[in-house]
Amino acid sequence: MRDSRDGSWLASRWERLNGPGRVAGIDLARGLAVLGMFAAHLLWISAPFDWTDASTWVAVVEGRSSILFATLAGVSIGLVTGGREPFRGEDLRTARLRLIVRAVLLWILGILLILTGVPVYVILPAYALLFFLAVPLLPLGARALLTLAAVLAVVMPVVQVALDDLPVWATVSGSALSLAIGWHYPFTTWIVFLVAGLGVARAGVTRAAVQVRMVAVGAALAVLGYGADAATGASGSDEASFASALWTAQPHSSGLLEIVGSGGFALAAMGLCLLVCRTVFVWVVLPLRAVGAMPLTAYVGQLLVWASVAVAVLGRPGDLAGFRDLEPFWPLALGTVAVCTAWALLVGRGPLEWVIDRSSRLVAGRSVDRLVP
Question: Is the pTM of this model over 0.70?
């Protein structure tokens, strides 16, 4: 006899991607962040981003895509731990344990990706450390979190300059440590983005008023950070000086102006994605939302395909210039969008997302999710 659930399988997959349990705008922002990271990895970008020169606009992906990704991590953590009302008691203890398990698994997965030899700075080890740092922050409300993010945004870039100058990074063991903790995305400063994202989730990221404020505040911060960088010519200054290392918006510098400008960019981008998904365009961007519904699978899949193709065609995975010369961005990006869309509509949750979620549930012993991350 035919299972009565069979006829509703496709409907249930559709509901999972488009129902009230998901925040479509966050999925869209994650999808764009993942594809932006693809572009930063795979495209030749010869000039820095200049909004007045359309030929440089592709450079917007450098640094900003990974910062958007980190900020969205904070939003996702906030959504699955109570949203505007943080979990308390047993729910909070369970959520913390699940977050720790996820962090451990992400770190292990990140190390395995590094061992493939693909010449990119893998973000997952840093992502895992940010998850660990989020554990004690889960009970905090929006006001406390956003205030903390603002303070850290001013203080940590100063500390970061000193940390980056430590002699340990010039040693062989320091180089290995750098990879193991994802120091290209230093958790000591990038915690700002996660805390800001968590604060936005606690403020009520699904509310239209909050989304409009995200766009306004984010745009103001972006203008402030990038404007100060342009006005002072910081990005072209002597990189050896403390002041120039601090007062810069260069991608992946972790300078004060990058934290302010790119953090603002991430907030504004999320707000715009959320507002777009309040309109009929939510259906136009469904394939991008599908990518954002399984960002870990998409990110890891890209690197595994890269390693396989590079070995088959170039003989080794570490030839970055040779791989970029193959012009792999569009095939990988479009293939990822197509596979993720088909998987989301026909199967459901991304395979790696499923494994991480199931593992954390097995350890924690119970489920407390209210929204799907």
Answer: yes
